[in-house]
Write a structure and sequence with these properties.
CATH class of chain B: Mainly Alpha
Number of strands of chain B: 0
CATH architecture of chain B: Orthogonal Bundle
Radius of gyration of chain B: 17 Å
Number of domains of chain B: 1
Shape of chain A: elongated
Distance between the termini of chain A: 86 Å
Order of helices and strands of chain A: HHHHHH
Number of strands of chain A: 0
CATH topology of chain B: Arc Repressor Mutant, subunit A
Helix content of chain A: 40-55%
Largest sheet of chain A: none
Structural class of chain B: mainly alpha
Radius of gyration of chain A: 38 Å
Largest interface: A-B, 32 and 47 residues
Structural class of chain A: mainly alpha
Number of helices of chain A: 6
Helix content of chain B: over 70%
CATH superfamily of chain B: Winged helix-like DNA-binding domain superfamily/Winged helix DNA-binding domain
Largest sheet of chain B: none
Oligomer: heterodimer
Strand content of chain B: under 5%
Strand content of chain A: under 5%
Chain lengths: 155, 177
């Protein structure tokens, strides 16, 4: 990039500025700086740059892979990311009222806590009941201790 | 961007070697002190600013591995150190240490007076313009280097320098009349 030349009066001023006497660093400055640096170096030795080890790198890569896998599966299943739509205040208030009616001795804080747990629990998705055959999925040593279950009742 | 690990001076500074710091001082101190003096108008403050720059160089030596241009790094640090001092004193003594400037020019009375007026006018400039003049005239940097130090474009650095000179000339003329 070509910069425009300065007009003569500014060029003269520039020359004048350049010709003025400037202070040189004092003799003591060098010693002062080196001594201060020496103290600094003695007080704080150089922190070594930490390099990622092979195992750490492998673990980080595996963690990133698993995370990406999970995200892609979730995306493929059209997962709703609204994990919690917020608690229904009316439901919590209703539950609290019911709890205080049933257990009037409970302090209000505990009533609210119980109400919150109750309402939150009511929103959990239902899980299918899984019944195992007697002894299935248990180590052989515990098979004898496992109670026998009646699988005919739940086809 | 890879650092200049091949530069033995930078490598020595990163390793915290005192001889590398001494070499860097011998290489840059004169221009740094001159530029700091141009910015601050005081030899004492200029030396303090330069000391701060070199001490910060030691303190943050591990970060130097990524530095491409040591000169640019030092002058940028110097400008920040000068800025801190400007902010601290808030123009309380714009013509500070003019006595020293006069002392420097003492052998010739007329020249000394002119030099003192020049310093007064220079110190009355806004800090950014003063910094450009100091970096160019006293630090001996090119406009490209000044632009890198100030974080501006080359044309901005050049035009800021020109405005500074114009303002300086204007002030000198006002003082003369």
């Amino acid at each position: 990039m070509k910069l425009p030349d300065l007009p003569e009066d500014l060029a003269a001023l520039e020359r004048e500025l350049a010709s003025r006497r400037r202070p040189a660093p004092s003799d003591a400055l060098r010693q002062r700086i080196l001594a201060a640096a020496r103290r600094e170096l003695a007080a704080r030795p150089a922190p070594e740059r930490r390099r990622l080890g092979a195992w750490e790198f492998a673990l980080a890569a595996a963690a990133a892979f698993i995370l990406l896998l999970n995200l892609s599966i979730s995306a493929a299943n059209n997962m709703s990311w609204r994990l919690c739509g917020g608690l229904d205040r009316e439901a919590v208030a209703g539950a609290a009222e019911e709890i205080s009616r049933l257990a009037p001795d409970l302090p209000p804080q505990e009533i609210r806590r119980e109400a919150l747990i109750l309402v939150a629990g009511s929103r959990l998705p239902m899980l299918p009941q899984v019944r195992l055959k007697p002894g299935a999925g248990m180590p052989p040593s515990r098979q004898s201790a496992a109670p026998a279950e009646d699988t005919t009742a739940h086809p | 961007m890879p650092g200049r690990s091949d530069d033995p001076l930078l490598a020595g500074l990163v390793a915290g070697r005192e001889d590398a710091l001494a070499a860097a001082y011998d290489l840059f101190a004169q221009r740094l002190v001159a530029a700091a003096w141009g910015m601050l108008g005081s030899r004492e403050e200029a030396e303090d600013a330069v000391q701060e720059v070199f001490l910060n160089l030691v303190r943050s030596r591990s970060a130097l591995a990524d530095v491409e241009n040591l000169q640019g790094y030092l002058f940028t640090a110097l400008r920040h150190a000068a800025m801190r001092r400007w902010n601290g004193r808030k123009r309380e003594r714009a013509s500070a240490d003019l006595g020293a400037a006069e002392d420097l020019a003492a052998p010739e009375a007329a020249r000394a007076e002119r030099s003192a007026r020049l310093e007064r006018a220079l110190q009355a400039l806004p800090p950014e313009q003063r910094a450009v003049v100091a970096l160019k005239i006293d630090g001996g940097l090119t406009f490209a280097e000044i632009a890198a130090v100030l974080g501006t474009s080359l044309s901005t650095a050049a035009s800021r320098y020109r405005y500074a000179l114009e303002k300086l000339r204007q002030r000198l003329e006002e003082e003369r009349t």
